[in-house]
């Protein structure tokens, strides 16, 4: 699977990227939502999955998910957050996201969430 991983924390980005690469995924990374949108635009949304942190500078994961879902409605999206209030903000995205993974998560939890998000059929609008 070709995955775009958007995370502003260097250590979390490296941890998740490495874990997914070990599972055989091709992972590209971005450090904020604006950089992720640039990568999506450059590739015309040709990713199998967008994995994004919710709380980031410049463009957060909520805005990124809304923008990506409008432009590429079939793109599966998995959000990650360590903040309960941010998880609640993602509730309005239930029709476009596959799941919200709560930080801190284990290696197995992120691998399972990505596997399930990539395998699910899109939710009905």
Layout of helices and strands:
Elements: E1 2-6, H1 10-22, E2 26-30, H2 33-42, E3 49-53, H3 61-71, E4 77-81, H4 84-89, E5 99-102, H5 107-119
Please give a quick description of this structure:
This protein has 5 helices and 5 strands. By secondary structure, it is an alpha/beta fold.
Q: Which stretches are low in confidence, meaning pLDDT under 50 for 5 or more residues running?
A: none
Could you give the order of strands across the largest sheet? Answer: 2-1-3-4-5
Query: How much helical structure, as a percent, in the residues?
Result: 40-55%
Q: Report the C-alpha radius of gyration, rounded.
A: 13 Å
Beta strand count: 5
Structure description:
It is a single chain. With about 120 residues, the chain is of the alpha/beta class. Helix content is about 40%, strand content about 20%. It is built from five helices and five strands; from the N terminus they run βαβαβαβαβα. It has a five-stranded parallel β-sheet, sandwiched between helices. The longest helix is centred in the first third of the chain and has 13 residues, at about 10-20.
